[in-house]
Amino acid sequence: MLIKLTGGKIYDPANKVSGQVRDIYVEDGKIVAPKPDARPDATYDLKGRVVMAGAIDPHTHIGGGKMTIARMLLPEDHRGDPVTRTRLTRAGSGRSVPSTHVTGYRYAEMGYTACFEPAMLPANARQAHMEMGDTPMVDKGAFAMLGSDDFFLRQLAAKADFEAIKDYVAWTMHAAQAIALKVVNPGGISAFKFNQRKLDLDEEHVYYHVTPRQIVVTLARALEELGVTHPLHIHGCNLGIPGNIESTLATVRAAEGLRIHMTHTQFLSYGTEGDRKFSSGAARLTELVSKSPNVSIDVGQVLFGQTCTASGDSMRQYAISKSAHPKKPVIMDIECDAGCGVVPMRYRDKSFVNAMQWVIGLETFLLFDDPWRIFLTTDHPNGAPFFFYPHLIRLLMDKPFRDDMLQKINPDAQAQSEILKSLTREYTLDEIAILTRAGPAKSLGLVDRGHLGVGAAGDITVYRDDPNREAMFATPEYVFKGGELVVKNGKVVKVVQGATHVVRPDYDKSIEKPLKDYFDRFHTLAMENFKLADEEIIRGDSGAIIVQPTGARVS
Amino acid sequence: MPSSDLRKSGDERASRELFEHVTSPFCGTLPDDLVVERTDSGLKVVGNGDAKSVAGFERKLPPSSPQLGGKDVSFDQAVKQAAKLLAKARQPLFGGLATDVEGMRAVLALADRTGGIVDHALSEAQYRNFKIMQSTGWIMSTLTETRNRADLFIIAGSDIHKLHPRFFERIVTPPDSMFDVEAPQRTVVFIGKGLDRAGAKGSRIGEVITLACPDAQAGDVVALLRARLRGFRVKPRKGDGVTLAKIDALAELCRNAKYGVVVWAPPALNFPFADLAVEQFTGLVSDLNLTTRFAGLSLGGAEGAITAAAVCGWQSGYPLRVSYATGAPDYDPYRWNIARILKEGEGDLLVWIASISPDFAPPATKLPTIVLGTPGLKLAGAPAVFIPVGTPGVDHAGRLVRVDNVVSLPLKDLGRSDLPAAAAVLSAIEAAL
Hints:
Chain A is built from 21 helices and 26 strands. By secondary structure, chain A is an alpha/beta fold. Chain A is globular and about 70 Å long.
């Protein structure tokens, strides 16, 4: 099967193509060199259209226990957005925590072809993958969460051999079928179980006597030496607390040149200036990160409306429970592994705090000038549901539109938005293509995604070049997945399953000896049953596994 | 959908096989440390069995065949007839739902396709929890967390030892736990006079305290406890010896606990408005977290109930009691309660899945019924269609979600029979529509 996409303007920053008109040939699911003499099975005339690789969301909570808790918790979230079965697609529910099938359809209908769940508790990995298995249309992958799990904290407290820590990290990534590693409120989820309500970067965990700084540095170094492409994905200390910009900056400095990714920084860039002692730290963060080539970020933009926050950070989620809307937070301590907090949230443009969160996110986008080190996220559904992305893209690309929106927010927040008002930057299509495709693919080590060069997967999105960028990015004209047309005019026309991306860093199998002993003594399941077999994804979920390369392990 | 063959070939198996780390599908807490041996005479639990698991694994299956109205037919004929009945039905009910993740996926695919109503036979108990979670939220723990961390257990109005014979052994009194809860020893408080306290013994247990109220009044006692914790004056209870002094002593224990866990089992709270008792249990947890750490632990979840709610939750957005009649999932915990629907004579076809225990027969109904059941299922009469199916974790592999809604476990194919999985039969029916 050969298809030809002809006449479109190609935005492929990974291959330094910026709006040039070129033909793309896709054969058997992959982009191939031009075959001017061949007779394609199908030709798409894309004159005037914008062509990009399929979009990749590097941080979206789409699968795992906390999402299903959120789904069960919020029937009112779904009632207003029922999704009817069609000849092709399954029924389900939409809104801020959509059902699995609807999540897949809506991502694809927005031009996305891959989504990464950033907070998979190893103890919950089986369910996370089952849910992602029921999320069609897009490729999937998940980041295993470590750093508050007792096996690691015991290693760290006992000053275990660093190679053994690396073995454990790699073992966990195999066992949980992960592509990356995340740390959430480093050590803080565990500390909360010991009734600590706050854990600053250099504050000691009351039981293990280790600090978040040690945890971050150890895990970041472990990943670097294991050759894992995506650096440690860090949800820092003190999320949501005014003044947390200090610990966020300190965390960036703590890495001392180790590669790290600071996630949803909007929630972690709060100062204490102004009458209300709540201000933007975006300028300070972007200044430091600009000078730190080892660091990448994503924003976690807040957009207004009803959503639900869901996080592994039980300590901080408990603390914000009083702001829940509706008032029904769910908090869990989980399996000597991690925790979770599901707190429904309504962001209001007339609320000073919510409006400042909106401002801080936009400032972060607009002040940071290396698009390869910043990704477009709302931390779905924490800052806003993913279907707000087209709106967010317009805010970034359209200064007059942004100014109009700014007029509507809380007046005190407007008064505190001098920086945002002064920023005339409008993102280009090239930059959007980097933030939503090329950058995440490069950061996650997806060698054949996020670009349109020869050998890349035939994951391609075609947009009408509409000056209203929100309308343009909301409804792509065509989406191809693996070279097949799956979405036409913003509607699914073919359902595909999507694959699961993982990495398999090397480890010494002898780590299973202390692990088995640990499971036997303390756990309520066997180590053997903790591990997720390939077969469960391939056969159990009718999926496929793509192993992305890792570098050589070094010590 | 699983692509497993409808009938597995059993002939490659050794006649004798020993399985370790076997998960028991016969208990909601899914213990996975069983050792099971298969010989020519059947399965034998040779390690870590309890009465329920031994009975489940060692049960000999009677010979069984697909049947139409009690008469043996071929598998294909039965599937064809089931598809015919489903195609004709205007309001098919998908009940029972004692199956695994793969089975639930197939149920939901079929219900979505046929406009059916989906509800588990044990939903009534689960809804004692869901109603509270959906209105106030809650703070919960899991089995491993509790096993290692709890220094105070409050067993609230539920006979946990009877429902989960291995709970005390695995969670309350294990030889080892990670944090320093050895000294002071674990305190166990029973609220309810009818609760089996035999499990609360051994070197890990310090004090055992009983507040001997009627079991169904555990919620009232906890309400008093909450009031006293807040310093309110209350009227003392009469008649059951649960004095204010005892309640105040418990309040003191709660305040001083480092990690208290309130344990209940919704199926045990079998009285009207039991959700209000659950609200008191979760409210107590919530109150105490202002100063110390407390969490709830809800047990129950037999017959795949937790799994059914979880899969229905992620696929439809709602935890069971969903109707697909309009083409989109519609959620109504009152209307789409299949027990109510059957009692009031609504619906026109019942599809009943009972692949785990033989006691899980459908309630009496005049509706034509399609049963996908384990052989030996104690049916009152011959259903319109009967198709024997395997038990996940015994006759075929599968996965179940554990009672704490976090951990899910793989289930092994122990080769007891060649019976097909419910998922495979449901998919065959869907394909025949």
